[in-house]
Amino acid sequence: MVEAVSNSRLTGGCRCGAVRYETDRPVHAAICHCEDCRRSSGAPMVGWMGVEAGGFRIIKGEPRIWSSNGQAHRHFCATCGTGLSYVNEALIPGIVDVQIATLDDPTMVAPDIQVQVAERLPWSTHIHALPMFDLYPD
């Protein structure tokens, strides 16, 4: 189940504020473990929320677009490099995947599934068992 506090539109943007967006509520939300997401983000997994393409709008700036294969298009800020969205009409027609962590309030959407787990890093299955610290340990 995709969670959100209200029916209002969600807003977000890149780290430096050069690119901003607003969007309708998502139709799905997931953690993706695919190699493409890892290589593009530099992170072991990425949280995405899928929104209907007609409900997503850039309201400030212009993201750069990069495609490794001509089908998947990753949108990011050319100034700070923040990954923002992903469009792949062949895989998910009519949907814009937006990185959940770029929301102004990323607690508004919680992933409810994990995808591409066949490609996940083996050690990521045990992250929940690692010691946790509120701040960086001394």
TrEMBL record:
UniProt domain CENP-V/GFA: residue ranges: 10-124
Family: Belongs to the Gfa family.
Domain of life of the organism encoding this protein: Bacteria
Pfam families, sorted: GFA (PF04828)
KW Nucleus (keyword) present: no
Keyword vocabulary terms for this entry: Lyase, Metal-binding, Zinc
SUPFAM superfamilies per UniProt: Mss4-like
Gene3D superfamilies, per the entry: glutathione-dependent formaldehyde- activating enzyme (gfa) (3.90.1590.10)
GO molecular function, one term: metal ion binding
Keyword RNA-binding attributed: no
Name recorded for this polypeptide: CENP-V/GFA domain-containing protein
